[in-house]
Automatic annotation (TrEMBL), chains A, B:
Region of interest (Disordered), residue spans: 1-24
Domain HTH lacI-type: residue ranges: 26-80
PANTHER family listed in its UniProt record: LACI-RELATED TRANSCRIPTIONAL REPRESSOR (PTHR30146), TRANSCRIPTIONAL REGULATOR (PTHR30146:SF33)
The entry's keywords: DNA-binding, Transcription, Transcription regulation
Keyword DNA-binding: yes
Protein name: LacI family transcriptional regulator
Protein origin, superkingdom: Bacteria
Biased composition (Basic and acidic residues): 1-11
Length: 364, 364
DNA sequence: AAGCGCAATGATAGCGCTAACATCAACAGG
DNA sequence: CCTGTTGATGTTAGCGCTATCATTGCGCTT
């Protein structure tokens, strides 16, 4: 029956704004009136164009432009229970590795019309708990969180939310749902293995005081302990300095100084991040210690600058952008298939030791 | 009542779960039933507790915990036309300066229950246009965007949205609404002034190829041109190299190499960012050029690492975190007063030249 | 007793959209 | 002719909240 429902005398684009609760913005029904179709048809023309005839689709498109319509996805989300938002919880974005993840995830999701709701957990559990709650109140279609160690309250909330959850940047045997990351313990062990292979024996560590750095340090120490057991006479030893978080170049520099004070005969310093490593190098350079001859330095992260410093930094490469892309792709696939049951699936993307000029050559 | 073990999802939970469109989550009305009050009272107890008697407030709080209620702010936003979200549009977060802004803004807003909807514009106008549209469809309460140069379509949409808009990280005489930033042209001029004051005459520039770097380069060149006019015999000259974006240490290094090839007698290189500067320094060190004696280097941004490198980087300090905090505070104040008219207000937060060790001392 | 102000609470009616079903025209086969 | 099928469109009834106004109870004045 077409247009009998709308009162004809209304003045064109202005519409019936007599209701005090209306926002005054152009609505779907305004576009529908302009195109001479029902609101539902406009909704379909925009969201499932294949269900609408070409003629109508064009009429609607013209009406959208004419009225300057911007869809209200808040209302859409309420009606359809799909918000097309993905919550991303990371400790900080002021750290290149997490920034890479957020960047690539945002880019990938944007292509499919999804958007990122950013939450910063600041390396603290209680902050994570609060952020999880506020973020879930927006009813995101999925949640991505860095790390696998959550308070039980957080775990409960995440399970109750019944949305896909991806833990990233870590490994665990017992993921909440999907897990995309790498083993920090294995990184530490591999670094130890590599440096032992280079012939170093007296090690320092300058690590940030966060859970994942602790895991890497543990992995490192475990491998070293094994070597000490095998070759007790070799004089292998380790001293560790914990730097404040967030890790900074200045923290690396003072950490390096502190470490060298405690262990003057240190041959190689393993750092919790490339940034800390740069700080250690700066400290060494200010003491005119030759690198890597007087002191070897190993970073973590292979951040953009690592390859281009002088001397070029030996480090561990993590593909942060890859994690972001994989995570986004995985989520998009699940949205498509509407598969909302937890998977308990683990994807280890691994890491790579990149030997450059701040460590001496490996005796292969 | 204990907790519900996860193996058995919602079964009864007193309510009309027979409706196929209900999400199955705990609703306000479920809490109301548990507390023995009306839904509206629960809403008030949570959002305007001062309007509710202490006795009722406590009953509601207990019911919230008992039921595990997580508010649905999508519905809340639709009903109240207040989403408590702020859209933040920056070119990238994989750049420490913008990451700082995003970080501090997110932190400050989170305290008041506001959340950040992140949009990445990738330095490209058409991408900005698309991002603005999708972001506005979420009906954020305000929008923050880096830069002042927008396409006319973008400007129109932003004006039509009738929400506070803050442009940051730049200066303009004609802001859309609020503007918090600094003059890139003035930065360039001040750097030129400073380096001339140090006695340098043959300048190189390694700049990223983005609009704001262009403005700084222009400011620099303008000041140099004035000096050339004043002292035509002095042999003052400038060569500029444009590096690809996003700026990287590697880009700085190759840019430095390219510049030195074109201008072997260059005395001082001004860089578009600290990252580029680090690259130039790395290139100089690989050529055993002493810094600052054989070559002076000036950065931009005073990123965390600038003070701690060896030699410590002379640079221009921008208070990114300050911009983020100021912006957030400003918005929170406007939300409080519900002042939604554009202000056309400009706040210049300035900058500071930080002379460290990569430039020689200023002849004061 | 009636009236008034005030604080606390409840009932109602949407916000702008979409899921689900209803309708309708056009056409095929029996 | 009827019936069934298909594709395009329309109608209805919410999604889960909150703005708004109505109602209630209580202490106080007149």
């Amino acid at each position: 029956m077409g247009d009998s429902s709308d009162s004809r005398p209304e003045k064109s684009a202005g519409g019936s704004r007599d209701n005090p609760r209306a926002t005054g913005a152009v609505r779907l029904s305004d576009v529908a009136a302009a195109a001479g179709v029902a609101a539902m048809t406009v909704s379909r023309a925009l969201n499932q164009p294949e269900l609408v005839s070409e003629r109508t689709r064009e009429r609607v498109q013209r009406a959208v432009i004419e009225t300057g319509y911007v869809p209200n996805r808040v209302a859409g989300a309420l009606a359809s229970s799909r918000s097309r938002m993905v919550a991303v919880l990371v400790p900080t974005v002021a750290h290149s590795l997490f920034a890479d993840v957020v960047q690539s995830m945002t880019d990938t999701l944007a292509c499919e019309g999804y958007q990122v709701l950013l939450g910063l957990t600041g390396y603290q559990r209680e902050q994570e708990e609060a952020v999880v709650e506020t973020v879930l109140s927006r009813r995101p279609d999925a949640l991505v969180v860095a790390g696998t160690r959550h308070s039980s309250a957080t775990r409960q909330r995440l399970e109750a939310a019944r949305i896909p959850v991806v833990e990233i940047w870590d490994m665990s045997d017992d993921p909440l749902d999907m897990l995309i990351g790498f083993s920090h313990h294995a990184v530490g062990a591999a670094v130890a293995e590599h440096l032992l292979g280079c012939g170093y024996q007296r090690f320092g560590q300058v690590m940030a005081d966060d859970p994942r750095s602790h895991q890497r340090a543990e992995g490192f120490n475990a491998r070293i302990k094994a070597e000490q057991a095998t070759r007790p006479q070799a004089g292998i030893k380790v001293t560790t300095h914990w730097a404040d978080i967030p890790a900074s170049l200045a923290g690396g520099r003072s950490g390096g100084a502190a470490l060298l004070a405690r262990m003057p005969d240190c041959e190689a310093i393993v750092c919790g991040s490339d940034t800390l490593a740069m700080g250690v190098i700066a400290e060494a350079q200010s003491r005119a210690m030759a690198i890597p001859d007087a002191l070897a330095v190993m970073g973590f992260g292979d951040m953009g600058f690592a390859a281009a410093t002088w001397p070029a930094l030996s480090t561990v490469r993590i593909d942060g952008a890859g994690i972001g892309r994989l995570t986004a792709d995985h989520l998009l696939k699940r949205f498509e298939t509407r598969h909302h049951e937890p998977l308990h699936d683990v994807l280890d993307i691994g890491f790579e030791i990149v030997a450059r000029q701040t460590t001496r050559a490996h005796r292969s």
